[in-house]
Design goal:
This protein is of the alpha+beta class and about 350 residues long. It is built from 12 helices and 7 strands.
């Protein structure tokens, strides 16, 4: 709280005091009061003015400085009420009371919005579950009755199924505690399942799916990891180069304290200017704008899910040469003892 602004805001007190003192002085002179009395009264009035002016200032300064400091220190400024002591002046009491009512109203609105949002997420998840049934049936029919479905129809069905699955996992990643189970999981099995699921796309686009020495187990949720790996593989297929030897190579680097899953392709790569943003929500980058195939959500959801699972995901790329994605799983040293 700055004294200069407080002084300007309370200039009327000095004005009233000066007016009152001038009137008193004229009365004293009119009645020929002794100068020593006038001086004594003047000193008394000055002390009174300073008391009236400064005591409230210091009370308010302590309160407001404390309020502002606490707001600056807190990550969540709306919790500042919990840090304040009861003010010793009426204006402060009014302010605290008003802040309390505002905070109460805000919390009620947030609770209502969270309930509505949760209901909407539950509805979307339910809808996606229901939509997956006829979609899966259509995909199965397209595989079993090749003559009734041309390649374009099958491709669109596959894309629709992928987008529906993406929505489902996006909702689940926002409510992670409901739907994941971390346990010992075979990387080889997850990688095989992802390869089988994307087999048609890999064959159609003539991309070799190379798996090298992946017989390791990690602590993760197998369904979530399959989805994460599927998003990375889909991106590699989308952004392949028009060459004969396109490939997606998956390997594992096992260290004492961690296991790293490495997914490498020799596609068109990512420009250095886009690398820092590839995990941002809805970011498509130059590749996405050029191909019109990207929603910018796949890697964002993958990153979000990795964070929830306690994994680390990183990406390395050189434009027009390669892209590498690293998913790192920490090793739990207590797991072998307790399992």
């Amino acid at each position: 709280m700055k004294f200069q602004k407080y002084f300007k805001d309370n200039l009327y007190i000095i004005f009233i005091f000066m007016l009152s003192y001038t009137i008193n002085l004229l009365i004293f002179l009119a009645f020929k009061i002794d100068k020593s009395v006038i001086i004594a009264v003047t000193i008394t009035n000055i002390i009174l003015l300073l008391s009236i002016y400064l005591i409230p200032y210091f009370k308010k300064k302590m309160f407001y400085d404390n309020l502002l400091n606490n707001i600056n220190k807190l990550d969540k400024a709306y919790l500042v009420l919990e840090t304040l002591e009861k003010p010793e002046f009426y204006e402060g009491e009014l302010l605290v009371s008003a802040l309390y009512e505002i905070n109460k109203s805000m919390n009620e609105n947030i609770n209502n919005m969270e309930e509505q949002l949760q209901e909407f997420k539950d509805y979307i998840e339910c809808f996606v579950h229901e939509a997956k049934i006829p979609l899966s049936t259509l995909v199965l029919m397209s595989n079993n009755h090749q003559e009734g479905f041309d390649k374009k129809t099958k491709l669109q069905l596959k894309r629709l199924e992928d987008y529906v699955e993406q929505v489902l996992y996006y909702v689940r990643s926002e409510n992670a505690s409901k739907d994941y189970l971390i346990k010992e999981t075979s990387l080889a099995k997850v990688i095989k399942n992802v390869g089988l699921k994307n087999m048609d796309d890999l064959l159609e686009n003539k991309v070799d799916y190379i798996v090298l020495n992946v017989n390791y187990k990690v602590l993760t949720d197998s369904k979530w990891l399959e989805f994460i790996l599927g998003q990375i593989v889909n991106n590699s297929i989308k952004y392949k180069k028009n060459i004969k030897n396109s490939y997606i190579k998956i390997s594992v680097q096992d260290d004492e304290d961690k296991t790293t899953l490495i997914i490498e392709d020799n596609g068109i790569g990512i420009k250095e200017s886009d690398l820092k943003q590839v995990f941002d929500k809805s970011f498509t980058g130059e590749n996405g704008r050029n191909t019109n195939k990207s929603t910018g959500m796949g890697l964002f959801i993958a990153k979000n899910m990795c964070l929830k699972l306690g994994h680390k995901i990183e990406i390395e790329s050189k434009y027009n040469e390669y892209t590498k994605v690293f998913i790192t799983f920490a090793k739990n040293k207590y797991y072998d003892v307790l399992k």
